[in-house]
Design goal:
With about 180 residues, this protein is of the alpha+beta class. The protein contains 3 helices and 13 strands; from the N terminus they run H-E-E-E-E-E-E-E-E-E-E-E-E-E-H-H.
Length: about 180
């Protein structure tokens, strides 16, 4: 029985990666009232230290507080930000950073939705999961470029080989022999 419990816990804690999920088919909801707050195509990454997902844009259901906040210590030291809340249930869902020091430059003018207050609906599997069960880390641009270069090189090699085979008539002869 003990083994069974630990197995179930292990499975529910297993984090999915954003790269394993089709971004087009994921929506983000208020954890309390399920109002839609954003979609997968607007996600730019994650700030793990703050437990937040970075969004370029959110839906009109996200209300930006008029009040500007600052902090003298913690993750948001020297930042100017406003709280974000859900229009329907008024609960806190995150922050928008108006101004940030260099260490948080990627967060400037971004919507930071707090993972603990967000659920995700995965259209492909018709399932609602906690945002905390998904990793929204995105590959740094350099790694993505390297990956693309490898793909293009492989395509180029394949096309060159095909061109050579065409020139030597090997493609035609193998096609005609079938
Ligand atoms: Zn709500």
């Amino acid at each position: 029985m003990e083994f069974k419990d630990s197995l179930i816990l292990h499975r529910s804690d297993h984090a999915k990666l954003l790269s394993d999920i089709d971004r087009r088919w994921i929506t983000f909801h208020c954890e309390k009232c399920n109002t839609v707050l954003g979609d997968g195509l607007s996600v730019c990454g994650e700030v793990q230290t703050m437990g937040c997902i970075l969004f370029m844009k959110v839906t009109k259901a996200v209300v930006i507080s008029d009040k500007k906040e600052t902090e003298q210590k913690g993750d948001l030291t020297h930042c100017i930000y406003s709280f974000l809340s859900c229009r329907c249930c008024r609960s806190f869902v995150g922050r928008i950073i108006h101004s940030a020091p260099a260490r948080l430059s990627n967060c400037r003018s971004m919507f930071l939705l707090h993972k603990a207050n967000i659920s995700c609906y995965l259209l492909n599997s018709s399932s609602m999961v906690k945002a905390t069960s998904i990793s929204f880390e995105v590959n740094p641009l350099r790694e993505s470029m390297k990956e693309m270069r490898h793909k293009f090189q492989a395509m180029y090699t394949q096309m060159s080989r095909f061109k050579e085979e065409l020139a030597h008539g090997t493609v035609l002869s193998s096609a005609s022999s079938n």
